[in-house]
Write a structure and sequence with these properties.
It contains 15 helices and eleven strands. By secondary structure, the chain is α+β, with helices and mostly antiparallel strands. The strands form three sheets. A six-stranded antiparallel beta sheet has the order 7-3-11-10-9-8. A three-stranded antiparallel beta sheet has the order 4-5-6. It comes from Aerosakkonema funiforme FACHB-1375.
């Protein structure tokens, strides 16, 4: 459900979030008036806060307390009320260039150094995935008709590993069912075309291709082929690539949100023992990045330059140990292919404009270094 706020309600939500991020204390109308010099009456502020509470954007932790932002309140704050700090982003990228030696260091050493710098700068847990090292390339593919309406894609890589996917052939309802021999001929023509266009590409590149650029005569197969290669790429993801470099745990555990021992234990266990569960949230493969706005738009923050990061706030995180946290991540790339990701993990009471800028700048730096 979309929530429409007036300019005044947006400003009071912004002020409430800013105050709570800075103090970790519930805020009342009097504090907002004094701190942000709001040129309205206390009753106006209270009414606006009541509206925000009824909309689920603020809540009272105790009956006599002020208000604090909910996950939904943070979501509107991130999506509508702030922009990443561009000056900080440039400073971070310059600092990474000054402190790290991308000419003489190994890429793993760069990642280690970048993780430590980001943890120190942000005050949050920094998570950087090791890059995908799978570089096998497509040697040959063949589309084969199986049962009526079913097609199997067979892919042979340059190391002679074979992958196959069986899918339904997309035939419009209002078109008469074509003859099997005609389909065989079309699939052979399509196989030849795809081999000429795709031979020598990695699976990650295939999944990230813009299939709308396929030759006009094959446009009707575009979505079908994208799904086929996305499935092949998904099945071929190596299990060993789930290593995540983690820095900054000690700093973030000083935050009041992590005062309970059991909460700390479950978070540490996730970071140390269950990286395979955490890894897909940080590094989203190309087929996940390409899903529709209706599924992923609420998780993505786009700044004025059109760059994109993923922001998962509180309950948007599917893993229980981090459902009171915010996870911000951005992919770094080799050329146009996403090969790894940079992220920060901290309390939902996070300085979002700074964290987004830091993550984005680090991803840009690592992309440049890897290229």
């Amino acid at each position: 459900m979309q929530i429409h706020l007036t300019d005044r309600q947006q400003h009071i939500l912004w002020a409430t979030v800013r105050h709570y991020i800075a103090t970790a204390e519930p805020v009342g109308s009097k504090a907002l008036l004094e701190e942000y010099k709001l040129s309205v009456s206390p009753a106006t502020v209270r009414n606006a806060m009541n509206v925000l509470e009824k909309a689920g954007l603020l809540y009272q932790p105790h009956t006599s307390a002020g208000r604090v932002p909910s996950d939904s309140g943070y979501r509107i704050y991130v999506d509508q009320l702030i922009s990443p700090d561009g000056t900080l982003a440039r400073q971070v990228e310059q600092l990474l260039q000054d402190k790290l030696n991308k000419e003489n260091w190994s890429f793993e050493a760069l990642l280690q150094g970048a993780a430590q710098i980001l943890a120190t700068l942000s005050g949050y847990i920094t998570l950087i995935t090791m890059p995908q090292t799978r570089t096998t390339q497509l040697r040959h593919l063949q589309l084969v008709q199986m049962e009526p309406g079913q097609v199997m894609l067979i892919v042979v890589m340059d190391n002679y590993e074979t992958q196959s996917v069986l899918m339904e052939l997309p035939i419009p309802i209002d078109v008469p069912k074509p003859d099997a021999e005609i389909i065989d001929r079309e699939l052979q023509i399509l196989s030849n075309f795809l081999n000429s266009q795709l031979r020598g590409r990695s699976l990650l590149e295939l999944a990230a291709l813009d299939w709308t650029q396929i030759d006009r005569e094959f446009q009707s197969y575009g979505e079908f082929l994208k799904n086929l290669f996305a499935e092949v790429s998904r099945r071929s993801q190596p299990a060993a690539c789930t290593q995540i470099l983690i820095r900054g745990v000690a700093e973030v555990l000083r935050q009041p949100e992590f005062s309970e021992l059991q909460q700390i234990k479950t978070l540490i266990h996730l970071l140390e023992e269950e990286q395979d569960q955490l890894w897909p949230l940080i590094f989203e493969s190309p087929e996940v990045e390409g899903i529709g706005e209706s599924q992923a738009g609420r998780l993505c923050h786009k700044n004025q330059q059109g760059k994109r990061v993923t922001v998962r706030i509180g309950a948007e995180n599917p893993l229980e140990p981090i459902r009171t946290c915010t996870l911000i991540s951005a992919t770094y790339r080799q050329g146009t292919v996403p090969v790894g990701s940079v992220g920060v993990l901290g309390p939902t009471r996070m300085v979002y404009e700074n964290a987004i800028a830091v993550v984005e700048a680090a991803a840009d730096y690592l992309s440049e270094a890897l290229s």
